[in-house]
Amino acid sequence: MTQHLHHLRGCAPAPLALYLKAIGILRLIAEQADPDARGWWQDEHFCLLTKLDRGEIESFFLNDYSPTPLLAPWNGGSGFFRTWDAKSGKLRNSKNAAALESLLETNDQRVIQLRLAASEVTTTLPAYCVRTDVSKLSAKERNKLLVLPVGDGPTFPVIPKDDSGKLQVQRTLLRMSRETPFYRSALVEVAENMKGPWLWGSAGNDGNIDYTGRFFENLNLILTPKDVAKNERLLNCSLFEESTHGLLTNAAGKVGQFFPTGAGGPNVTTGPGTQKDTCLNPWDFVLMLEGAVAFSSSTTRRLDPTAIHRSSSPFVVQSHTVRKSTALHEKDERGEQWMPLWNRPACFPDLSALIAEARLQVGRRPAKRPIDAALSIARLGTARGLSGFVRYSFRERNGRSHLAVLLGRIKVKHRPNATLIDNIAPWLDQLQRMSRDKNAPARFVHAEQRLADAVFAVLTHDETSARWQAVLEAAGGIESIQVGDTAIKAGPIPFLSPGWIKAAGTGDGSAEFRLALALGSAARGFPKGRRPIDSVRHHWLPLEPGAFRFSVSDKRLAHDSRVVISGRDPEADCAAIVRRRLIEGERDSARSLPLKAAFGCDARLNDLAALINGEVDLDRVLTLARAFMAIDWKNWSGKEVHSNLPTLPSRDNRPVPDDAWLALRLACLPSLKKSGQASGNVVSKDNITIPAEPSLVSRLLSGDGSEAVRIATRRLGASGIRTPFTSAITDPETARRWAAALAFPISLHSARRAVEILVPDFFGETR
User: Fold this and answer.
1) Using CA atoms, how far apart are residues 623 and 473, in angstroms rounded to an integer?
2) Measuring CA to CA, which residue among 443, 438, 473, 440 is closest to residue 455?
3) What is the overall mean pLDDT for the chain?
4) Which residue from 286, 246, 241, 262 is spatially nearest to 21, judged by alpha carbons?
5) Distance between CA 61 and CA 234 in Å, rounded?
6) pLDDT of residue 58 exceeding 50
7) What residues contact residue 233 under an 8 Å CB cut-off, 6+ apart?
8) Hey, is 55 helix, strand or coil?
9) Is 159 helix (H, G, I), strand (E, B) or coil?
10) What is the pLDDT of residues 207-259, one digit of tens each?
11) Residues 201-226, buried b or exposed e (16+ Cβ, 10 A)?
12) What do you get for the CA distance between the two ends of the chain, in Å?
């Protein structure tokens, strides 16, 4: 059988109206003309593979197309209810009702099907509904009745105009329309209440626009056209984007939320505009709603019985301000719906199964936020044959009307590192809940949005070290806000798996990253198979032992004298860590600087030389180090960092710090005490120890580098390391950087290398 490929350039992924139109075309042809029809997205348009050639497709829509009965008897303006205006005593004709009556008067076979669908509803009306010729009723009598304009005129079924009567009729009509496709897509049953998904506004209407009424109006225009040739041109324009004229510019052209730029009115386009500027192809509107019917809401309710009714629609998540042009409050938005794209031929039953399943899930729970949806897509990859999603947000703009605003496109791609977000997922949920509080500080709300943006970006774009580092930096920003006693319940950054270091460091050969790793891993010691002892994280936050929870007193962060980081001056903060650790080392009779880095994370001498020379962004170093302090170092092997370090030049060609600073560094080393060995710092095979001197840091911070170096060389000389100098002169700024550089732990190998530089023959033969 010959298959014809049609490029429907009138269908595009955006705006939402054109996307739904493509789904509607595939659905109608598959259900009424060619069950084997296939469709897919390619080069920003929809492709249709079917046995119908172009002429047969046009003939199908012009002559054989059977419309779907979009009946919304629960809406007052749907055409089933007509009310009298008590003030004027005149009939207030609903445009829906007028359109319905117009259709009922025609002899078109497709309209007769709609009439039969409506007639089936009227056959089971309550017994007290009687047929009455409303033209013979007085104004007072009319005001007490509701009229159902369905059936043969001039008599219509009427019921008492009171709440009980109207409610009874609506329930009856609902029972009769329960099996229709429109009912399954436009309503979700919650207990005894009926709610409408965001795609259909408020169960088929948005503001003062009733979609079922507009559907009948536009359907009447294309099924019983006054100008047949013009109708054919409009169809070709809708399907194949052929140029034409004669688009609607009247009230029937209102498209609602699906096509924001075609809604007309001021500020829609350049120049002045009015509401009469609406421009709409009636075929676009009809096919758009035929496509919207495919998104059934009732089946997805089974996936999560506790979910809110709005999220029971396929691929719907709650609103969150991630990657948006404006940061609106959530109450101004109905939510988001992610429309799937696929680049391989698919039949409509397969698409229906995908929509019915709607599996945007994180673990066993459905995705409820954009971040959850992005995480689900990153894990699912291409398992469902999808190539991407188009992200729409339903935003309130004009009165109570909404617009389906395009937020972007998400590419479906397997991302192995996406599982890292699991480490902070509960923390993110808690942050979002707290940011919704009306009393939440503005800076906390903005910090939470920044973190959400960073997480969303890393899940929806190509993975780079910069994006993963942005997540860590944003998480550190949340912690820094909490130091000021804000949002205490959020807690510190949860423990992170070592995979974060690989994700954040792949391709990043910067000194900032390596120095941040050295400081972030610093602790008093690293017992095998256990978490570090006395992590440097305690100098940033008041934490309980184990650095897992905040230390709280009287519902506030407890005062902890070990917290010495102010966050205002990075050089002073680094020096404060060194000074505090030296004091603690002296208190423990160790006479050392108790700071060691995790295996393979020690600071390099060439990186420290760049820091001392002012070539390193110390603010960025501390920001990253703050996040690295949350790494679960007991599971660290060192392979994650060694596999990503750039190739370095030979040792002789690497820059090293000044000799004066090397002397200071050797006078501030951690204790490497072993059994039967005196306390101090071992830097030689002869077990020579170098006691630390706490006053060094104070001297450096005051700008007195000369005295600090003199004290250090005296300590070294007493330990047998006689330097060729006893003092040095430097400016106060460099002296402060000298003090800051002492906070970054170095390895024993680097310490011995420093001894070799100062005293080349100290170890005998120069290595």
Assistant:
1) 6
2) 473
3) 76
4) 286
5) 12
6) yes
7) 242, 244, 246
8) helix
9) strand
10) 777 787 788 778 878 887 888 899 999 999 999 987 766 665 544 556 778 88
11) bbbbbbbebbbbbbbbbbbbbbbbee
12) 81
Pair type for strands 145-147 and 130-133: unpaired
Is residue 35 very low, low, confident or very high in pLDDT (cuts 50, 70, 90)?
Answer: very high
At residue 309 the predicted structure's pLDDT band, cuts being 50, 70 and 90, is: very low
The span from the CA of 465 to the CA of 450, in Å, is 17
387-398: per-residue pLDDT in tens?
899 999 888 765
Report DSSP state, residue 649.
Answer: P
Among residues 676, 738, 741, which one has the least CA distance to residue 706?
Answer: 738
With residue 757 as reference, give the H or E element that holds it. Answer: helix 748-758
Tokens of 338: 């992610």
**pLDDT for residue 718:** 85
Q: What is the 3-state secondary structure (H, E, C) of 110-144?
A: HHHHHHHHHHHHHCCCCCCCEEEEHHHCCHHHHCC
The two tokens of residue 410 are: 């998400």
In the block, tokens 């117009």 appear at 102
Confidence of residue 75 (pLDDT cuts 50, 70, 90): low
Q: Stretch 593-616: mean pLDDT, rounded?
A: 92
Burial bucket for residue 61 (CB in 10 Å: 0-12, 13-18, 19+): buried
Burial of 74 from C-beta contacts in 10 A (0-12 / 13-18 / 19+): buried
CA proximity to 404, closest of 594, 592, 255:
255
Residues 6 or more apart whose Cβ sits within 8 Å of residue 176: 120, 121, 124
Tokens 């709609």 locate to 114
Instruction: Write out the E strands in 228-364.
Output: 316-317, 333-341, 346-347, 361-362
94-132 pLDDT tens trace:
333 343 344 334 434 444 444 444 444 444 444 445 556
Say if residues 300 and 356 touch (Cβ distance below 8 Å).
yes
Report the C-alpha gap between 535 and 597 in whole angstroms: 10
Residue with tokens 């903005």: 446
Torsion angle of alpha carbons 315, 320, 325, 327, nearest 10°?
A: 150
Name the residue among 103, 338, 105 with its Cα closest to residue 221.
103
Contact 454, 503 (CB under 8 A): no
CB 249 within 8 A of CB 277: yes
Query: In the prediction, which pLDDT does 93 show?
Result: 35
- Under 8 Å between Cβ of 700 and 575: yes
Using one digit for the tens of pLDDT, what is the confidence trace for 449-493? Answer: 999 999 999 998 888 899 999 999 999 999 888 876 555 678 889
- Asked if the model's pLDDT at residue 716 lies above 80, the reply is yes
Residue with token string 């013009």: 230
Residue labelled with tokens 């609106």:
328
Q: What angle do CA 645, 650, 656 make, to 5 degrees?
A: 85
Does the pLDDT value for residue 615 go beyond 90? yes
Reduced 3-state DSSP string for 188-251: EEECCEEECCHHHECCCEECCEEHHHHHHHHHHHHHCCCCHHHHHHHHHHHHHCCCCCCCECCH
Spatial contact of 357 and 333, defined as CB atoms under 8 Å apart: no
Which strand (E) or helix (H) includes residue 45?
A: strand 45-50
Nearest CA among 312, 314, 336 for reference residue 323: 336
**Residue 603: which pLDDT band, with cuts at 50, 70 and 90?**
very high
CA–CA dist 98, 87 (Å, integer): 22
- Cβ 709 vs Cβ 663: under 8 Å: yes
CA-nearest of 160, 139, 172 to 71 is 172
User: Which pLDDT score, from 0 to 100, does residue 146 have?
Assistant: 56
Tokens 């001197």 belong to which residue? Answer: 693
